[in-house]
Amino acid sequence: MYSYQNLRFSERLENAQNTREYPREYPRKKLILAPFITETLLIKLHLTLAAVLFIVTAVLRADFVNASERYGTALASVGQLHVPGQRFENGYARHYDEDCSATLITDDERSKSSRFIVSAWHCMEFYRDTSKALTFETAMGEIRTANLITSGGSMYSDWALLSLNAPLPHPAVLAMEEREEMEEKEAADTLLMAGYPRRASSQRKVLETARNCRITGRDDRDTKSNCVLQKGASGGAVFQAGQKIRYLGVISRGDGESQSIYVPLKRFRARISAHLERGRLP
What we know:
Elements: H1 2-19, H2 39-75, E1 78-89, E2 92-106, E3 113-119, E4 134-137, E5 143-151, E6 160-169, E7 172-173, H3 180-186, E8 191-195, E9 208-213, E10 215-219, E11 222-225, E12 237-241, E13 245-254, E14 260-264, H4 269-278
Parallel strand pairs: 2-7
Antiparallel strand pairs: 1-2, 1-4, 2-3, 3-6, 4-5, 5-6, 8-9, 8-12, 10-11, 11-14, 12-13, 13-14
């Protein structure tokens, strides 16, 4: 009985093994190409796409490098203006230093140097003690003394032209007069602002920029933008950041949160042109 049951169990096990279904192995399908597409053509297409990708990448990299060089040259024109101020409070003179920004400028794109800078009038509002020199300092640490030549004379015309005791390299080029309106329209989406804002956490001020911002409107005769820089950037530069970086105006004021207002070059070009022409350098 025991052997019989074992026999029947062995038979059942053998039958189960013989009838077990295993996964089928399907033959790999061969890639069928359209009659006009060959493997050689596919290789050529692959190589062509790789070459196009390489060229596009190289062009984009070159554009980025060129833009960086253009920006770098323009930003080298922006420096710090140190103003020894004096206010009278309760009958006593109180001395303090005003730190603003200023831009080295020229009206000739062939000029490699200049002795003229533009800043904001309000930076010089309390400059009364002329025995103490105004100083202009570049990002490279070069320092020149400066003299006030002419200015707008109020916040309603917040610009000032100063001359340096010796020229400096890398001036910003003024937008051409006949192209100024067009360049300002082009700058509606391509403004670049630069200055030296005050930072409580830093002993030394550093150049800061607001890029890819635009013109948003007018404030009387001045221009509003959505560029944002902090106090201390007053007197700094406004550039039209297209293929050629051109100086469009001087930063006047802002709220430090959503906008900056600048005095457009066309408002004071006539007042500074004669000085630039007489003091033009090679």
